[in-house]
Structure formats: structure tokens, C-alpha cells
């Protein structure tokens, strides 16, 4: 399983870099005077350090992370608080989601995803039959998740909040927790997200756009409509690699959360199915590793990684396709983002060590 995990990880990385190279060629030249700016940055500050950490963490006994899980989570939460500190936190488009330390900028929320998976796997890993006990297991889980959710809502980053909660619930369910408690947490989460949507006009506009894409096509519905145009023009086999017209300034966030639309426009329905198939194969490998792992902590950690990746892939593709409201969630392995790819590869490195011990 370890070799299969390495293979699919490498294939997805190559696929992502090839797509990013094409998607960012116009925007990179326009903003930075370098057509391959996004490709170079992704390689130097994302893929290469990420692969280094993948192989490094694959050599470290995964049970070590159980011992330091609380320290890791505490450090991640501290970094999340730093986004609100003047001269350290960086604001972008009305949101505070970045931190700059010693000239290095990164997104703490991405690190939090992995930290929370490790912590919850360690927490529930030591609770076995007591996982159904509200006071001993579920209540502390809800408190931790609420604090994490509060920090994400304050940034604000509702898209990441949804991914984090889905991931946490995946670990919670796999741990054998009470379904009654699970449904209670889901209900509270839905109410909280609904409240966050209605108190911010731009979030409410995304709901209106989702319900009626024809509403204000040059305004609040612009990104979704341009995304649907890209997807619709791709047809079965696409317009050809590097032949997208939507990336010429029409489609917003072309290298970030809208990049799947470029995949379909250039590579068609066939290319989209290939990419989705690669993600499904990765999910299959992760589930297989989880099933074969006898250690409860290791099994829950792999489940958390699987839920995180699959959940984020589904939300991104569904949003770009108009099946759910736009969230701003990037597509794993494909969207531009150094912190995201480094954290993802680090987590898969830990999973690789788990697979090695099966």
C-alpha cells in the first residue's frame, strides 16, 4: 500500500502542476511579468518542500505524533490567533487569513487541518468503548471544535470551516461515537453556518447566485457563470491543452478555487473524469490502509486524512459546477497554494509510515 500511495501522490502532483502551468500562464504574465510565475512558485515553495517533508515524515514512527498531538494543536491555534495581530497577520480581500513571520507568509488554517486530524485521532484513539460517553468524549470534542470554528469564523473563512467540521465529524463517526451526539453536533453546525451566511451580505449573495445563476450575471453571479461557460465549452474532449479562453481575464480565481473549470474546458469531460478517478483511487488506498491498520490511532488518522481530501475535492468541484454555493475552497494537488500542498504532503507522509507498518 505504501508504494501505491507514493505512486498516486506523484501522479496527482504532476497532473496538478501541468494544469496550473496552463491555467496561470495569462494571469502570471499580466500581474508578475512571468507566464510561469505560479508554476515556479508552486514548485519552489510548495511541491519541493512538501515532498521533502513527505519523505521525512514517512520515516518517523507515526505513534510519535500521538504523544505531541496537543502541542501541535496548541501551536496551530496560536498561529490562527496571530492572523489578527497587527504587522504579523495579513489581510486580503477583507479577510485575515495569512501570517508573515521572518518574511515567510503562510496560511495557518491549512496547518490547522492536519493538526486537528492528529489531535482528534489521538483523543479518540485512547477512548475506545468510552467514545459514546458525552461527558468524557463528545463534550470535549464539541468544545475544541467550537473554539476552532470561532477562530475560522472570525477570519472569516467559512469554506475552510466547513471542511474542518466535515473532517472532524469523519473522525468522530469512525471512532464509534453515538449517532445521537453526531446528529446533535451536525444540527448545531448547520444552524451556526446559516447564521454566518445571513449576517454577511456577500455570503448571502452566494446563496442567491447558487439558487439563480442568471441573477446579476455581471455582478454577484459573474464567477459562477464564467465557470459554467468554461465547463460547458469543454465538451467531451476539451478545447486542447493551453487552449482555454476563459483564463484570458474572464474567469476569476483561475489558479485557485476555479481551476477545475479550466481542467474541463481544456481537457473536457474525459479529463475531468480522469482527475476525479485519480482522487477516487487515492481515497480507495487511504480506506484500505485504514482497514488494514490494527492501531486505533493510526486508523483514525488515516480516516481523518481521507475525509479531509475527499470532502475538499467534492466541495470544490460541486461549487465550480454550480451544485453547491461557492466557498472559495481550493482543489487539492491542483490549485495554487504553498501552505496547502506542503500540509497535504506532510499528512500523506505520516500515512505512508502507517502503511509501512501494516
TrEMBL record:
One of the GO biological process terms: cell division
Keywords: Cell cycle, Cell division, Cell membrane, Cell shape, Cell wall biogenesis/degradation, Glycosyltransferase, Membrane, Peptidoglycan synthesis, Transferase, Transmembrane, Transmembrane helix
Transmembrane segments: 42-58, 70-92, 98-122, 134-152, 158-175, 182-199, 267-287, 299-321, 333-355
GO CC annotations on file: cell division site; plasma membrane
Predominant localisation class: membrane
Record-listed E.C. numbers: 2.4.99.28
Top-level lineage group: Bacteria
The keyword Magnesium belongs to this UniProt entry's keyword annotation: no
InterPro entries in the record: FtsW, FtsW/RodA
Catalytic activity: [GlcNAc-(1->4)-Mur2Ac(oyl-L-Ala-gamma-D-Glu-L-Lys-D-Ala-D-Ala)](n)-di-trans,octa-cis-undecaprenyl diphosphate + beta-D-GlcNAc-(1->4)-Mur2Ac(oyl-L-Ala-gamma-D-Glu-L-Lys-D-Ala-D-Ala)-di-trans,octa-cis-undecaprenyl diphosphate = [GlcNAc-(1->4)-Mur2Ac(oyl-L-Ala-gamma-D-Glu-L-Lys-D-Ala-D-Ala)](n+1)-di-trans,octa-cis-undecaprenyl diphosphate + di-trans,octa-cis-undecaprenyl diphosphate + H(+)
Membrane topology: Multi-pass membrane protein
Coiled-coil intervals, chain numbering: none
GO terms of molecular function: lipid-linked peptidoglycan transporter activity; peptidoglycan glycosyltransferase activity
Cell location: Cell membrane
Enzyme class, spelled out: transferase
Known pathway: Cell wall biogenesis; peptidoglycan biosynthesis
Family note: Belongs to the SEDS family. FtsW subfamily.
Record's protein name: Probable peptidoglycan glycosyltransferase FtsW
Organism: Candidatus Yanofskybacteria bacterium RIFCSPHIGHO2_02_FULL_43_22
Amino acid at each position: 500500500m505504501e508504494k501505491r500511495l507514493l505512486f498516486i501522490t506523484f501522479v496527482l502532483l504532476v497532473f496538478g502542476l501541468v494544469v496550473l502551468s496552463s491555467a496561470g500562464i495569462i494571469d502570471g504574465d499580466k500581474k508578475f511579468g512571468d507566464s510561469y510565475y505560479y508554476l515556479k512558485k508552486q514548485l519552489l515553495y510548495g511541491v519541493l518542500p512538501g515532498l521533502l517533508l513527505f519523505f521525512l515524515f514517512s520515516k518517523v514512527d507515526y505513534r510519535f505524533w500521538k504523544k505531541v498531538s496537543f502541542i501541535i494543536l496548541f501551536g496551530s491555534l496560536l498561529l490562527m490567533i496571530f492572523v489578527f495581530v497587527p504587522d504579523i497577520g495579513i489581510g486580503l480581500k477583507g479577510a485575515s487569513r495569512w501570517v508573515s513571520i521572518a518574511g515567510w507568509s503562510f496560511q495557518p488554517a491549512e496547518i490547522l487541518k492536519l493538526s486537528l486530524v492528529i489531535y482528534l485521532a489521538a483523543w479518540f484513539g485512547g477512548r475506545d468503548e468510552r467514545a459514546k460517553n458525552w461527558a468524557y468524549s463528545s463534550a470535549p470534542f464539541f468544545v475544541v471544535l467550537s473554539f476552532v470554528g470561532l477562530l475560522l469564523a472570525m477570519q472569516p473563512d467559512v469554506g475552510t470551516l466547513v471542511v474542518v467540521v466535515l473532517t472532524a465529524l469523519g473522525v468522530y463517526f469512525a471512532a464509534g461515537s453515538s449517532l445521537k451526539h453526531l446528529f446533535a453536533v451536525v444540527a448545531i453546525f448547520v444552524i451556526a453556518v446559516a447564521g454566518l451566511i445571513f449576517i454577511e451580505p456577500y455570503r448571502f449573495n452566494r446563496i442567491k447566485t447558487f439558487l439563480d445563476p442568471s441573477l446579476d450575471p455581471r455582478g454577484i453571479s459573474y464567477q459562477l457563470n464564467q465557470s459554467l461557460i468554461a465547463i460547458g465549452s469543454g465538451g467531451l474532449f476539451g478545447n486542447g491543452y493551453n487552449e482555454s479562453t476563459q483564463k484570458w481575464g474572464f474567469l476569476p480565481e483561475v489558479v485557485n478555487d476555479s481551476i477545475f473549470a479550466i481542467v474541463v474546458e481544456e481537457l473536457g469531460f474525459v479529463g475531468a473524469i480522469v482527475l476525479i478517478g485519480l482522487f477516487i483511487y487515492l481515497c480507495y488506498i487511504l480506506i484500505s490502509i485504514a482497514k488494514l491498520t490494527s492501531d486505533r490511532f493510526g486508523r483514525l488518522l488515516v480516516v481523518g486524512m481521507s475525509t479531509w481530501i475527499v470532502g475538499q475535492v467534492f466541495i470544490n468541484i460541486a461549487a465550480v459546477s454550480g451544485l453547491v454555493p461557492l466557498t472559495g475552497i481550493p482543489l487539492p494537488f491542483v490549485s495554487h497554494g504553498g501552505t496547502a500542498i506542503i500540509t497535504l504532503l506532510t499528512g500523506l507522509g505520516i500515512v505512508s509510515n502507517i502503511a509501512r507498518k501494516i
